[in-house]
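haha ok so turns out i had the wrong file open the whole time. this is the CORRECT one, sorry everyone. sequence first:
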Amino acid sequence: MYRALPLADEDELVARVVPPPATVLDLGSGPGRIANALVRRGYTVVAVDDSEEMLRHVQGAETVLGDVASLRFGRRFDCVLLASHFVNAADGDRRRAVLETCSIHLASDGVLVAEAYPDSLDWDDAVGRTSRLGDVVVRVEEATRVGDLVEATVAYELGGRIWRQRFGARMLDESDLRRELSSVGLAFDSWVDRGRSWFTARLEPSFAASLPRP
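then structure:
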């Protein structure tokens, strides 16, 4: 299913922020949906995922098998890419651990390009809606929001087969996001898409010197 999901111009978004050639650390790369496209654009990419099967489909990038929350790779990058919704992890400790991985792998003038749920997302309205991403049909089957915490089930259908994912998430407004980033030495930079679901962040100069080294 992940291999069937199409590229949604994420490579173009990265290119607008950090043009090639540049080094990119793709955290949670999956089968290389974005990493492969970045390689074709001329980036030097390291793709990290905790699934060996996923990494077998990455083409042209260096691959690292591991958990993005505990990764200490020993190198810094012009860009760290954090697609999907690690930023909205319901577990605050894991969310900060992933963001710390981002900060300690950024070059001093590097930029984090990350995805998050838009704070305007109406989960009640989303229930029952169906969308198509290439050959994959996506449907939010149920969602319950209490305060800023969400429990939801999303179904993915491909070729007559259905995979259901149940997950928890914490919704963050921009103030929340700025606080979370600052806690690991990152400063919010700007939203980089109209839907306010992708943003950039950079190292806080005053905090960079105290960060643990990879």
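The chain has two domains: 10-118+172-208, 123-170.
again sry for the mixup
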